[in-house]
Amino acid sequence: MPFLNARKKTLGFTLIELLVIILIGGILSAIAIPSFIGLVDKANLNNAVTEVRSALQTGQREAIRRSQVCTIGLSIAERKVTGYCLSGDRNLPERVALATNISKKPSSLDKTVEINFGILGTAEFILEDLDEPDDIKSSKVETKYLEMSWQSPQPTKDPSGKIVFSIANNSSLTKKCIAISNTLGLTRIGNYTGKIKKNYKLTKEGICTAS
């Protein structure tokens, strides 16, 4: 019978077809992967801001409810939020970098800053002096007959505390910030424009546009 002598067709791809498929797949991956990483970074950034603000609001609320001071600690280096008024420590994503103009506590070895909430919900924290180098606080001149010393003039300071969030090695994403009012303890979320020093500190030119 004729059909018994018919050759079977070999199903498959030629080498050129395989190379074309691999090339197309590589192009699509090169386009899709950076976009996917950008979406993940943006989600991590927003989650970190929400987590820290939630912890601050919880600390303020618990201080009022318990009628006692509640201290919220933020470890800049370890990206961790702590506080005995919280149900547990809150860890932030590893790629999220933090910076602030709030002074770290003197005994802190891991750059932990503290915000204290009072029984009326008020907030108290110490701001860094961003107008002078860290190791120079005053100037002093000695002469043969007179010794003079003076403090640098103190400019008007922004009384609000700022916590800035960014993604390491991704400068394309807009930096986020939380502004905390000193005394009232109100928090606002916004975008940060300005440079960040290598020691996790902000510059005096930095602005947190919060709404």
Features:
five-stranded antiparallel sheet, minor pseudopilin epsh fold, 211 residues, single chain, alpha+beta, elongated
CATH homologous superfamily descriptor: minor pseudopilin epsh domain
CATH architecture heading: 3-Layer(bab) Sandwich
Gross morphology is elongated
Question: Strands across the major sheet, in which order?
Answer: 3-2-1-5-6
- What count of helical segments does DSSP give? 2
**CATH topology, which one?**
minor pseudopilin epsh fold
Structure description:
- This protein is α+β, with helices and mostly antiparallel strands.
- The chain has a single domain (40-210), classed as minor pseudopilin epsh domain (minor pseudopilin epsh fold, 3-Layer(bab) Sandwich), CATH 3.55.40.10.
- Helices cover 27% and strands 27% of the residues.
- The chain has helices at residues 2-5, 15-66, and strands at residues 70-75, 80-82, 90-91, 96-100, 112-117, 123-124, 138-142, 147-151, 161-167, 176-180, 187-193, 207-210.
- The strands form 3 sheets. Strands 3-2-1-5-6 form a 5-stranded antiparallel beta sheet, with helices on one face. Strands 4-9-10-11-12 form a 5-stranded antiparallel beta sheet, covered by helices on one side.
- The radius of gyration is 28 Å and the shape is elongated.
Outline of this structure?
This protein is 27% helix and 27% strand. With 211 residues, the chain is an alpha+beta fold.
Describe the protein's topology:
Elements: H1 2-5, H2 15-66, E1 70-75, E2 80-82, E3 90-91, E4 96-100, E5 112-117, E6 123-124, E7 138-142, E8 147-151, E9 161-167, E10 176-180, E11 187-193, E12 207-210
